Amino acid sequence: MASHSVNPPEDSAAAEAAPNTVPPRRGSLSFRSRAERSSSETLSVEIMERSRSRPMASYASKRSDSDKLGSQREIDDDEARFVYINDPERSNLAARLPNNAIKTTKYTILTFLPRNLFEQFHRVAYIYFLILAGLNQVPQLGVFSPAASILPLAFVLGVTAVKDGYEDWRRSRSDRNENNRVALVLVPGDREFRPTPWKYVRVGEVIKVAADESIPCDMVLLATSDPAGVAYVQTINLDGESNLKTRYAKQEMQSTAPEALSGLIRCEKPNRNIYGFLASVNVDFPTGTAATKPVSLGQSNIILRGCELKNTSWVVGVAVYTGQDTKVMLNSSGAPSKRSRLESQMNREVILLAATLFALCSIVAILAGVWLVDHRHELDTLPYYRKQDLSEPQVGKYNYYGIGAETVFAFLMSVILFQVMIPIALYISMELVRLGQAFFMIQDKNMFDEATKTRFQCRALNINEDLGQIKYVFSDKTGTLTENKMEFRCASVRGVDYSHGEEESLFSSVSSGETRKPKTSVKIDPELMDAIKGGQGIEKANLARDFFLALATCNTVVPILVETPDPSVKLIDYQGESPDEQALVYAAAAYGFMLVERTSGHIVVDVLGERQRFNVLGLHEFDSDRKRMSVVIGFPDKTIKLFVKGADNSMFGVIRKNIDLDIIRETETNLHAYSSMGLRTLVIGMREFSIDVFEEWHSAYEKASQSLIGRAKLLRAVAANVERDLNILGASGIEDKLQQGVPEAIESLRQAGIKVWVLTGDKQETAISIGFSCKLLTREMTQIVINSNSKEACRKSLQDAASTARRLKAAPDSESTFSGTGSMQTPLALIIDGTSLVHILDTELEDELFEVATVCDVVLCCRVAPMQKAGIVTLIKNRTDDMTLAIGDGANDVSMIQMADVGIGISGQEGRQAVMASDFAMGQFRFLVPLLLVHGHWNYQRMAYMIMYNFYRNSVFVFLLFCVLYSVIYTALPTIIVGVLDKDVSRKTLLKYPKLYRAGQNNERYNLKLFVLTMMDSLWQSLTVFYIPYLAYRRSTIDGPSLGDLLILAVVLVVNIHLAMDVFQWNWITHASLWGCIVATIICVIIIDCIWMFPGYWAIFHIMGTRLFWACLFGILVASMVPRFTTKALTEYLMPSDVQLARELEKSEETNLSNSSEIPLSTFSQL
Amino acid sequence: MQNANGSTAGSSSASGEASAPLRNSKRPKYSRFTQQELPACKPILTPRWVISVFTLIGIIFVPIGLAALAASNKVVEIVYRYDDDCVPPNMVNMKVAYIQNDTIDKTCTKTLKVPKHMSQPIYVYYQLDNFYQNHRRYVKSRNDAQLRKASEANETSGCDPERTANGAPIVPCGLIAWSLFNDTYSFAIRNRNLTVNKKDISWKSDRDHKFGKDVYPRNFQNSTLRGGAKLNLTKPLSEQEDLIVWMRTAALPTFRKLYGRIEQDLVINDAITVQLQNNYNTYSFSGKKTLVLSTSSWIGGKNDFLGIAYLTVGGLCFFLAVAFTIVYLVKPRKLGDPSYLSWNRNPAGH
């Protein structure tokens, strides 16, 4: 301990100085803006290990699941944090621990300006604009007015700064709200709990949390209102899952009053791992006999900040991690700010253009220098230069600083003149275009979710066009592909299939004038109902009753009463870690076996209208080895039965085979039918205990549960010993309801060349069955399963997988994996689980995984942790240039959503975390199809064209200026309009041919080749614009302003006709903006020429009166467009792109349509 | 595929109808604009279009080109470069000294032959070469306010380095006015003077609005360094047409400026005697001075370029029309044939 007591114990100062461990977060609304909500404010933690891994009635310490993930090791003193229960002073003595205040803001008032500007100037172009603005301040260059030259940049910077500042202010406001929430903290001296703001909570303090309150920090449970030490927490604000998770207080601490408790917890240093918690506790008993034996604490003994306490009237815990140290804050990885692919590609072109600009300016400067040197003796008197200034008696120099300086000035001045080469207006136009595109995406009625009344949301405005270039879609399963609603569909009782749910269940439990109904009703099969009621013989009725009793009892579901408007009616909401179990319990309730009450010792079930109390004598939890769970139930009539339910392959091994062979065979047939329908199946068995068997089991069970070492293993052995010779009761089929249109959407995406990867926290079997039901997996696919427990095993299975893949893939070309249908190869599916990923991610095995995964057509990752989801996205992002998209609904998807190039949140569900972190939010998975295939395609196409066109147009101006120095009229409007409105192919066609999406994936519309071609075209066009008038007016009386007018009109016409040639669809807005722009330019020129102050007074009228002018203008237009038109016509005809062909198809279909609609009309008229 | 999408769309709209009575304020309002379904024309470059566009351009351009060439050929031009000729043989090596020496008589006489019949009006131009009237220092060096209003005579901003002389403002100030061209020409045929009409050689708009009727030259060409012509101090600027013409600065370094008009026909082989005053100093920057007598046509002066350009473009378009016809015949492709789609052409995706 001595080694730790270095720092002074001034905890508040220490807290202030606590390092801000939260990296800067992305600009858009963060998860913190939910200050209004009463719920906690924390980010994604999914408590992965859900479902049957924990028993209802666990009594004392259990190894946490993190053990499995390999974190079981002794904590060294150096790596440990020492928390003295109920002694915050001593806990904070050793190290500077932060207090519980959180800070998610990026800036302070002082750092705002420098830091924000620093971030903004990451855009290469802004630096360029800054240099230019600086140049404009040099008076000798005074090309434009200095103030005006700063304005555009200042405007762009200012708007962004205000936006960032506002968001940061909102964050700080919600931080403040969060920090000032009140928790009950035990004051050590007073022995009573006092309300304290969250921000003052310190490590070591004991906190009491009441039901439905949020947990203020990560704390180890000391005691709960339940005598067994059980507490339920809801993580709905973390991961959007509404079911409860169970946590336990250690019996060793539960038994002592929290006020009197003291002890030392040794735990890990704060880390991001939310599945693991490694600690041990030495409890000092008040009697003075210090407990010497440390008790280990695990994942199930800690409740994390951000959870909410449910169904437990209070818990008391000791704070172990506070503020920025909480797992939730450590996991709130700030999203890297996203920049669209096109924009980063644009940086390349910006640099290229800057080089061209530099070259042009150098040429200008060198020529200027040469000329000055040539004429150095004449400069004094040269009529058009004359550096001598004779105004004053002393001969001065007129704006002349020597040949060297003049050359430099010439260079800088040409930089200023040619600055439009990289147009700041492009950046403004891009923002405007994105705004327009966002508007159309939001307005699209095909992306409006009728069920939840949510429309599409654009949360990030700067990556619209990335939607057109996606190659990988990483999808969450629960809540994204599926509705997270399990539905009981089929039952097979004694080999008879009952799967015709038709009738509404009428059962409700009435006691003391209060009616209780299950919250969700399940359709029941009348035949089965009849069987239960005894209509098909008493034996059958008993079996059916046992079947449903098993469903109602063999689980860990907790019934919670929900008030309804009618005070005499209450709804029973079944809460549990496994949605399957919930579905089974709801089904049992519908058939008249309603679970009404559950405590750790007994269960109350309303059996066909009559309440019965069953004793729970023992519960064998689910584990992945046995793949089943069981309960020992003491019936009111003193019989004792063991109910078992589990996966079919594990159950058939323990079922008594010597009798009921027919039933077993029938059940197997039914099971096969269910699973081929995509249902999740469970087999239910029963064993009646004789007194002897019960006694034997009971003593073994008691012994095992009280042992301190290897308890789980012993309990497993007890369970395995007793779960045998079962009578088969039946089987159930549960549907994990897919969201609407998911299989079709996946098929469309696959056609579009997008790889869909499903990353789920579910079990492997579940993941595979969902894979089949959403058509991700097909029967003809070869599945490669990687399911290993060690690094070496992973390496080996990866190598095997790679060789299998090589063998099966005739063509090693990775392109071929996109081809999908029609290829001769066997499609491959890779299924990998989270445990394997632990050993693979962040090691050298990543490369091998990447190779295998990219060869496979489908990748399914099951039991993955949130950070692993992000890790998989990174795996692809780091190794390819392909664009990735992540879609999910829960907080466990946040890291993945932030990591991917495009993150999409499913809105409309309870949890808002995913939406808050996302770039786009929508109601349904299937909206991905219109979003990517239609809007993504259009956005990409439009933006790519607009950028290219802007570069083109400005270089035309510059190349022209290079020849003749004159001002520039801006023609931004038509580009913006085209950038917002034009569409190459209609929605219908895009959806009909999903493969058209590949245009974006292959960068067809914006690449270096296209850029170079465009630049060459612009060079040719500017040459014609300059040289045709130059040669035509050589040796004529043409004056400068007149020629300038001609050039301006010519260049505006040329760039707009160029645009007109590329417009795909002409609607009235396009017409208006394009022709309007030309007319506006002419009007502008006329107005300027009507002002006598300018040298060009009346020039336009003079020159328009000459035929030569019109001949020049017309000649320029045609000559400049001929190469482009020719190339366009040739490529469209000889090498048509898919998009081009689709346009032709569309057109011919339309003409056919209009023809066919005309024919009947004409025949009609003839009649 | 189509069925799948159809069903998706269908079901969504069905559910929409079902929940229609519910509040749906958030639901986007349908309009053809917001759904991006405005009626639009979708032009496609069909072979017929391409060929007819090229043919049409050819049909328009070739005749215009021919007409322009013909017009240019009909223009008769007498071009006489005199800057070298008019330097006395003894001073050929010291041209600058010659031109700067005010004591030498700069009169220079030359006889020009009329090559073809020239019908009136015959325009008299002077042409300067290598004179950058479009230089940024030069173009800026003027003050339009001063030229227009007598009251603003003191307004000389922007006129550097020719703002003031001997402490007083110059009217008209600036380099442009200062460097006013001052060679003069007079013509005679068979010893009879040809009158050169110097009226209305400038733009009417300039005379009426840019140069004031009550603005008189003041303190002009009084500094030690003399640039060019002096102005008649008794005439308002609006009547000093040579100045007005000069002040409309040329766009290109080789330019002509109108000197006057001869309003009578000149007959072939007539000998015109030109008497010029060779005053203007272009020798210091080796600029050329040329006297031009020219008729005009609808296309302007004598310049074959535009005609040739039109003929070239027109011819090229005809050629392209033929070339495209051949391409379309040799490699016929039905427009909108799905079998050309890349995934149909090559099922393996290569």
TrEMBL record, chain A:
<dbReference type="GO" id="GO:0045332">
    <property type="term" value="P:phospholipid translocation"/>
</dbReference>
<feature type="binding site">
    <location>
        <position position="761"/>
    </location>
    <ligand>
        <name>ATP</name>
    </ligand>
</feature>
<feature type="binding site">
    <location>
        <position position="477"/>
    </location>
    <ligand>
        <name>ATP</name>
    </ligand>
</feature>
<feature type="transmembrane region" description="Helical">
    <location>
        <begin position="956"/>
        <end position="981"/>
    </location>
</feature>
<dbReference type="InterPro" id="IPR023214">
    <property type="entry name" value="HAD_sf"/>
</dbReference>
<feature type="binding site">
    <location>
        <position position="893"/>
    </location>
    <ligand>
        <name>Mg(2+)</name>
    </ligand>
</feature>
<feature type="binding site">
    <location>
        <position position="892"/>
    </location>
    <ligand>
        <name>ATP</name>
    </ligand>
</feature>
<dbReference type="InterPro" id="IPR008250">
    <property type="entry name" value="ATPase_P-typ_transduc_dom_A_sf"/>
</dbReference>
<dbReference type="InterPro" id="IPR018303">
    <property type="entry name" value="ATPase_P-typ_P_site"/>
</dbReference>
<feature type="transmembrane region" description="Helical">
    <location>
        <begin position="408"/>
        <end position="428"/>
    </location>
</feature>
<dbReference type="GO" id="GO:0140326">
    <property type="term" value="F:ATPase-coupled intramembrane lipid transporter activity"/>
</dbReference>
<feature type="transmembrane region" description="Helical">
    <location>
        <begin position="1108"/>
        <end position="1126"/>
    </location>
</feature>
<feature type="binding site">
    <location>
        <position position="478"/>
    </location>
    <ligand>
        <name>Mg(2+)</name>
    </ligand>
</feature>
<feature type="transmembrane region" description="Helical">
    <location>
        <begin position="350"/>
        <end position="373"/>
    </location>
</feature>
<feature type="binding site">
    <location>
        <position position="863"/>
    </location>
    <ligand>
        <name>ATP</name>
    </ligand>
</feature>
<feature type="binding site">
    <location>
        <position position="476"/>
    </location>
    <ligand>
        <name>ATP</name>
    </ligand>
</feature>
<feature type="region of interest" description="Disordered">
    <location>
        <begin position="1"/>
        <end position="72"/>
    </location>
</feature>
<feature type="active site" description="4-aspartylphosphate intermediate">
    <location>
        <position position="476"/>
    </location>
</feature>
<keyword id="KW-0067">ATP-binding</keyword>
<dbReference type="InterPro" id="IPR036412">
    <property type="entry name" value="HAD-like_sf"/>
</dbReference>
<dbReference type="InterPro" id="IPR023299">
    <property type="entry name" value="ATPase_P-typ_cyto_dom_N"/>
</dbReference>
<dbReference type="Pfam" id="PF16209">
    <property type="entry name" value="PhoLip_ATPase_N"/>
</dbReference>
<keyword id="KW-1278">Translocase</keyword>
<dbReference type="Pfam" id="PF13246">
    <property type="entry name" value="Cation_ATPase"/>
</dbReference>
<feature type="binding site">
    <location>
        <position position="581"/>
    </location>
    <ligand>
        <name>ATP</name>
    </ligand>
</feature>
<dbReference type="GO" id="GO:0016887">
    <property type="term" value="F:ATP hydrolysis activity"/>
</dbReference>
<dbReference type="InterPro" id="IPR023298">
    <property type="entry name" value="ATPase_P-typ_TM_dom_sf"/>
</dbReference>
<dbReference type="GO" id="GO:0005524">
    <property type="term" value="F:ATP binding"/>
</dbReference>
<keyword id="KW-0472">Membrane</keyword>
<dbReference type="InterPro" id="IPR032630">
    <property type="entry name" value="P_typ_ATPase_c"/>
</dbReference>
<dbReference type="Pfam" id="PF16212">
    <property type="entry name" value="PhoLip_ATPase_C"/>
</dbReference>
<dbReference type="GO" id="GO:0005886">
    <property type="term" value="C:plasma membrane"/>
</dbReference>
<comment type="similarity">
    <text>Belongs to the cation transport ATPase (P-type) (TC 3.A.3) family. Type IV subfamily.</text>
</comment>
<dbReference type="InterPro" id="IPR006539">
    <property type="entry name" value="P-type_ATPase_IV"/>
</dbReference>
<dbReference type="InterPro" id="IPR032631">
    <property type="entry name" value="P-type_ATPase_N"/>
</dbReference>
<feature type="binding site">
    <location>
        <position position="869"/>
    </location>
    <ligand>
        <name>ATP</name>
    </ligand>
</feature>
<keyword id="KW-1133">Transmembrane helix</keyword>
<feature type="binding site">
    <location>
        <position position="889"/>
    </location>
    <ligand>
        <name>Mg(2+)</name>
    </ligand>
</feature>
<feature type="binding site">
    <location>
        <position position="645"/>
    </location>
    <ligand>
        <name>ATP</name>
    </ligand>
</feature>
<feature type="binding site">
    <location>
        <position position="476"/>
    </location>
    <ligand>
        <name>Mg(2+)</name>
    </ligand>
</feature>
<feature type="binding site">
    <location>
        <position position="622"/>
    </location>
    <ligand>
        <name>ATP</name>
    </ligand>
</feature>
<keyword id="KW-0547">Nucleotide-binding</keyword>
